[in-house]
Amino acid sequence: MVDTSGQLYTIEGIAAALIMLISAYLVVNATSVYTPGDTHINDMQLEVLGSDALQVMNTPVNGSSESPLQEIVENDDASTFNTTFLNYVNNKTGSEMDNLHYTANIAYRNITDGDTIWSYPLASNRNMTAGDHPVRVTEWVIVDKTLPPGAPYPPTERAVLVEVLLWRD
Amino acid sequence: MIHNEKGNLSVDFLAGFTIFILAFIWVATMIPSLLVGLNAHSIDYNAVAYRTSVILAEDPGAAGPVSGAPCFGISSASGSAWESTVTAPTKCDIARFGLAVSKDTPNVLDENKVNRFFCWTESADPNDKTNLSYPDDYRKRAIFGDYPYRFNISLRMDGENTTRYVGEAIPEEDYGYIRRAVLVKGPSNATIDENLIKEKYWSNGTVMQGNYSEDRFTIHFNGTQLLKDCTNVPHEINYRNYQIDPSLDTTVINITGLDTLYYDSPSSTTTNLTGIFLSTSPTAMTGRLFNDKNTFTFIDGNSTPVGTLPANVTSNISLVIPPGAVISESTLRTNPHVYLTLIFKNTNTVPTINSTYGNWYINSSESGPFEYDYNAANVTQPQLHSGVLEVAVW
Amino acid sequence: MAGLNDEAQWIVLMGFVVSFSLFFLAMILNQSVVVGQTTAEAVSEFPKDDIRGIREVTIESQMMNLPDADRKLVQNDIRVLSMSRQNAIVNLPLPSPTMIGGYTYIDIHYNNGVTAYNETWRSP
To answer: What is the SS3 assignment for B39?
Structure first.
């Protein structure tokens, strides 16, 4: 006669094996794949470099002049900004240069339109497309300018924010 | 409970146990493959690189004791002027590296700190206290952390081809990296050329000593004005970028065109520089300098400094004064006025020189000393030159 | 239930022990990968350059010796731009800075919701 008295250990063995296999499967399936972009390390490197470049541009070269960035904003000089900023951002210590792209805006407070913030483009190296993943760096500048541009009153000292979006190909 | 003491194993037990063991072995061999991609130290290479770049580019560093052989924490240095051999004569007096000019001027590096930082050897004698060696000295003072990271720190100035670096060659992959854009503050210098001499500092000898006259040319460092009055500085926060501080910055004084001061004589006429003095009053010649330790007086374009005085001078003199060497921080802060005087012995007698001008030579006794200050017409102010600093850690 | 034979429970127990240790290991592995990410995010999260920029532009605007109306204009620019573009509240000193004993004192308050920074700057 078949009876079940000998099946105890077998059943327990099979149950334990199933438990281990299922948990191992869950563990192995659960590890997430971190792409380099997820870690935001490259973003951090770009941000540090971009804000360094803007800060260096906003430092006067000697004690009695304006900083290069102040002059660029006062004269809306896009080509000087382009050469200077790209120079700082793409220079490496080896012989090759890096290949970064940017667009820069000036944000200012429009006193003729309540206290809203308006902005106008300053310079860019390439138009940004949807696939680019930029970081944003900013720099405060005090300039002697008429804002909004074209208003009928003479220039006064104003504080503006230079915003640059920086990305790598 | 009935215990079976016969020592038999039932088949049921064998079957169950076998299934369990097989599954266990299979799982145990599968799991270590999860651990293959895990390397504890490579996770934070980028973080260490960023931290090192902040310590170097944004912090002025610290002079002080450092632990471990061969220093054992013995040092009485303090402050942030670790690049000065007066404050920190040996590497045991440098507690932490930092290249910034001051803590309020991030990303502006001090040239003297850069020079001392990039002067290194590869694994020198462990008991050597003067030369910095890669990697231990840099690990203790810039990289930090328990794991022995390898690194490469490099700096290149715009417009130069040479890159200064510390460390090994960077591997092909898997290293942490950061790049910083920086400015380097250069020295100030004063050039006293023949036009300026003939306009202001040209007169008869002051003291007749037998058949020659003695001409004295004095340069005045007004400590109070140099340290406190940075006029025309637009940013109050980072005035240190533009400050002339002879105790911390290199000071260069060039005197040129000395051979044109004689109208009728050929340029082979020479004068004799008999002494250089440093004193706190314009007339008292009390502190004689440059007897045998002179390393910063260059005459007539020679690249080796003059060893002893008196020495003959034909056309120009350059004094390239390292920071703190002549005028230390304590001197400037306790004595507001410091005078550096050069004494020339002028042996040219009247009949061979233009009869109108006699034996006139460079001389500041009538016009007053040359002011080394923030006047850009006299003194070329410190300039900031751009560069790039890279840190790679692996 | 007195007659149930529970002698084989140790096999299942061992199975459970192994599976729990697997889960524990998985948790540790999961956390380790995130370390690199959170370090980089923490660096970007702290507004170091924003605070430095606000500090510099505030002190510059105060020490430039502008007439009062111009200085108020610049400081209102700073306030509004900072709120709208950097999501930070900046409180700047009253129209004129405090001057005591030949030094100028400027109070700066910055708060972007995560980080607050307060300083009283004294002129050198």
So the answer is: coil
Task: Report the candidate in B77, B57, B372 with the shortest Cα–Cα distance to residue B243.
Answer: B372
Q: Identify the three-state secondary structure at position B271.
A: strand
In single-letter form, the type of residue at position B201 comes to Y
Nearest chain B residue to A24 by CA distance is B27
Q: What is the pLDDT of residues A83-142, one digit of tens each?
A: 999 999 998 888 888 899 999 999 999 988 888 999 999 999 888 888 888 999 999 999
Q: What are phi and psi of B338, to 5 degrees?
A: -130, 135
List the structure tokens of B7. 């020592």
Residues B77, B63 contacting (CB under 8 angstroms) = yes
Angle between helices B11-30 and A8-30 (to 10 degrees): 10
Contact B75, B64 (CB under 8 A): yes
Q: Please answer yes or no on whether A10 and B163 come within 8 Å at the CB atom.
A: no
Single out the residue of B198, B159, B181 nearest to residue B362, CA to CA.
B198
Tens of pLDDT, residue by residue over A49-67, are 999 999 999 998 876 778 8
Q: Domains in chain A: how many in total? A: 1
Residues near A116 by Cβ (< 8 Å), separated by ≥ 6? Answer: A109, A110
Q: A148 preceded by cis ω (within 30°)?
A: yes
Structural contact between residues B313 and B299, judged by C-beta atoms closer than 8 angstroms = yes
The reply to whether A149 falls in a domain is yes
Specify the residue for token string 């002893």. B308
The alpha-carbon gap from C12 to the nearest alpha carbon of chain B, in Å, equals 9
The SS3 call for residue B309 is coil
* Contact present, B190 and B208 (Cβ < 8 Å): no
Give the domain range for residue A85.
37-168
Task: Identify the pLDDT of residue B268.
Answer: 45
Nearest beta carbon to residue B34 from set A13, A28, A65:
A28
